[in-house]
Specification:
The longest helix has 9 residues, at about 160-170. It is built from 2 helices and 15 strands. Strand 5 and strand 6 form a beta hairpin. About 55% of the residues are buried. The two termini are about 20 Å apart. The protein has one domain. Residues about 10-55 have low confidence and may be disordered. It is globular and about 45 Å long. The protein is mainly beta. It is about 5% helix and about 40% strand.
């Protein structure tokens, strides 16, 4: 997942995090472990930008039904490998770099637990992906340190922090704070001085609302 200063992308993936990543914290899009993942994001991010303060993930923010979400590794044997520019990536993309940001692929077993911090309800999901990060040679968002694309196949998760949620809303996209996806997921992201965040979300496949599951509504 990708992640924004908190989004977790499962690459695991935090573009945020942009989220989904192997715990990829897009939040810093850091070389991962990581976002996002918008991400949120979690863990497959390959940015060297330092992460800022930890992001709080809140389902149904600003409503009486709001609750915090936390997650942890149950099994994490994912490996992130840097790709050569020009390497094909699912979805018709190719690996590109924008030093110090380099394209990568993260794969391997990843099982995560997700907990409703209010009720302590916990679910466990296999979110092994794999997922890829590629960067635009020149940032496409004014003022951004870098921009790029997060691609995932298989099943992944994304935890979207406040930055990604705001950017997605501005783009007319509504996604839950925690989402599980299966299929081809493509998210564009940007990294600025505050961290990484997701700017788009496109899925050819199926998804589950993690917030609804943890709240007992699903």
């Amino acid at each position: 997942m990708l992640a924004d200063c908190g989004d977790r992308i499962n690459s695991q993936s935090s573009i945020g995090g942009i989220s989904a990543m192997r715990h990829i914290k897009l939040a810093a899009l850091v070389p991962i472990t990581a976002l996002l993942a918008i991400a949120a994001p979690a863990t497959a991010a390959q940015a060297t930008t330092a992460a800022t303060s930890a992001t709080t993930y809140t389902c149904y923010p600003g409503t009486p039904a709001a609750f915090g979400v936390s997650n942890s590794d149950v099994v994490n044997k994912q490996v992130t490998t840097t790709l050569a520019d020009g390497t094909p990536i699912p979805g018709g993309f190719v690996a590109q770099s924008d030093p110090p940001y380099y394209p990568s692929v993260t794969s391997g077993p990843l099982v995560e637990s997700f907990t409703n911090d209010t009720t302590q309800k916990t679910i466990v999901r296999n979110v092994s992906g794999p997922n890829w990060f590629t960067y635009d040679p020149t940032p496409t968002v004014p003022g951004a340190l870098a921009t790029g694309t997060y691609v995932a196949t298989g099943t992944t998760y994304q935890l979207f922090g406040p930055m990604s949620e705001a950017a997605l809303k501005a783009a007319g996209i509504s996604e839950p704070t925690l989402v599980f996806t299966t299929g081809l997921l493509v998210m564009h992201f940007a990294i600025d001085s505050s961290g990484p965040y997701v700017t788009s979300f496109s899925l050819k496949g199926t998804q589950q609302d993690g917030c609804a599951i943890l709240s007992g509504r699903h």
